[in-house]
Amino acid sequence: MTRNVTADLADQLWMDLETQDAAPATVLHEIRAACNARARRPLGALLIETGTLTVRQVAQLLRLQADEMHLRIGELAVRERMCDEEQVEFCLELQRESGLDPVRALISDPRTNKTSVAAALATYIHRLEGAVHNFEDQHQGVH
What we know:
By secondary structure, the protein is mostly helical. It folds into 2 domains: 1-39 and 111-138, no CATH class; 40-98. Helix content is 73%, strand content 0%. 16% of the residues are buried.
């Protein structure tokens, strides 16, 4: 899937949350802004920042990933023997800590209606599954 499709789906989720009265619009905007302010850093950037890989190595991995979109950059780095699984796991943990998960933020905020949040998330998952199927159909047999 392209970034545009996933960004569009995320935008639709936030609109659904507002439409379904998951919380007042100001609260939803506040939560979304907090999540965007603490967006997860790309794994490639973290591999560079920790000194695990060089910029050149990450660029090489991104070129490989363009041909093997089903593989993640960490998987490629290990396969290409640029680093080991422990180094990737360390950077993945840094990545998890750097971001604010929108689902967790929505569910833990006392100002949100959990039933409406769940309904909006169910719709989002359904749309995401459809997008994945469309992507697979478009790329079936393409190597």
